[in-house]
Design goal:
The structure holds two protein chains of two kinds.
Chain A (H helix, E strand, L loop, with lengths): L2 E3 L4 E5 L4 E3 L2 E3 L5 E7 L6 E5 L10 E2 L10 E3 L8 E8 L9 E2 L3 E6 L1
Parallel strand pairs in A: 2-11
Antiparallel strand pairs in A: 1-4, 3-8, 5-6, 5-9, 7-8, 9-10, 9-11
Chain B lengths: L3 E4 L2 E4 L5 E7 L5 E8 L3 E8 L6 E2 L7 E3 L5 E6 L8 E8 L10 E2 L3 E5 L1
Parallel strand pairs in B: 2-11
Antiparallel strand pairs in B: 1-3, 3-8, 4-5, 4-9, 5-6, 7-8, 9-10, 9-11
The chains are: A mainly beta, B mainly beta.
C-alpha cells in the first residue's frame, strides 16, 4: 500500500539554522513525490516536486529510492518559512488520480 | 481568474443537521477533490471526481456524499452531521494527471463545527 510518513509533528529551529523535514514513503514502483506548504491562514500550495529537481524559496528535496525518502532541506531557515509542510506521493497503484499525503510537520522558525 | 473557491468559509451545525459545501473552479480542470484536515491526521481524501458526472470514494467517504453535475463545481454533502465531522474541509482541482499539468490547486478551506 502507498504510505507517506512524516515522523516529526513539530519542528522548531532558530533563524539562520539549517532545517530538514523528513519524509519517508512506501511504494513499490517509481513514485512521484511532492512537498506542499500551508502558511498561516493561507491555502495549501505546491512547494516543489522531485521531478523538477528545482529549488524553491531555498528549499530542495532529493528522492532517495534506496532509503525511500524525500527529505526537504534548507541551509538557512527564515522566519517566513514557518508553516505546515506536507509530503505527498502519487503513483499508479490505486490510481494516479490521487495524492497520498503525510500527516504534516509544523515548522516554527524562531528569531 | 479566481482559482478554487469554497463556500461557506465557516459554518456551525447541530448534530443531525444537513448541509452542502460548494467548491468551484474556473480553470477548466478535469479532476476535483474533497479533503478533510484534522490535527495530527493531516489531509485525508473524502471523495474525488475525474470528470463531470463522475465521483469516486476516497479514504474516508462515510457520512458524506458528493456530486459533480457541472465540470466547474464539486459539491460535498453531509446528510446528518455528527461531531466527528468537525474539521476543516479543503477542495482541490487539477487539470490532468499528466506531468506538467498535474499540480493540485487548493481552495481556502471551510471550517465546520458540529455541536
Amino acid at each position: 500500500a502507498q504510505r507517506v510518513t512524516q515522523p516529526e509533528k513539530l519542528l522548531s529551529v532558530f533563524k539562520g539554522a539549517p532545517v530538514e523535514l523528513k519524509c519517508n514513503y512506501s511504494y513499490s514502483g517509481s513514485p512521484e513525490l511532492f512537498w506542499y506548504v500551508q502558511y498561516s491562514r493561507q491555502r495549501l500550495q505546491l512547494l516543489l516536486r522531485h521531478i523538477s529537481r528545482e529549488s524553491i524559496k531555498g528549499f530542495t528535496a532529493d528522492l532517495n529510492k534506496g532509503e525511500t525518502s524525500f527529505h526537504l532541506k534548507k541551509p538557512f531557515a527564515q522566519e517566513e518559512d514557518s508553516a505546515m509542510y506536507y509530503c505527498a506521493l502519487r503513483g499508479p497503484q490505486g490510481g494516479s488520480e490521487k495524492l497520498v499525503f503525510g500527516k504534516g510537520t509544523k515548522l516554527t522558525v524562531n528569531p | 481568474n479566481a482559482g478554487v473557491t469554497q463556500t461557506p468559509k465557516f459554518r456551525v451545525l447541530k448534530t443531525g443537521q444537513s448541509m452542502t459545501l460548494l467548491c468551484a473552479q474556473d480553470m477548466n480542470h478535469e479532476y476535483m477533490y474533497w479533503y478533510r484536515q484534522d490535527p495530527g491526521m493531516g489531509l485525508r481524501l473524502i471523495h474525488y471526481s475525474v470528470g463531470e458526472g463522475t465521483t469516486a470514494k476516497g479514504e474516508v467517504p462515510d457520512g458524506y456524499n458528493v456530486s459533480r453535475l457541472k465540470k466547474q463545481n464539486f459539491l460535498l454533502g453531509l446528510e446528518s452531521a455528527a461531531p466527528s465531522q468537525t474539521s476543516v474541509y479543503f477542495c482541490a482541482s487539477r487539470q490532468s494527471t499528466r506531468r506538467g499539468t498535474d499540480t493540485q490547486y487548493f481552495g481556502p478551506g471551510t471550517r465546520l463545527t458540529v455541536l
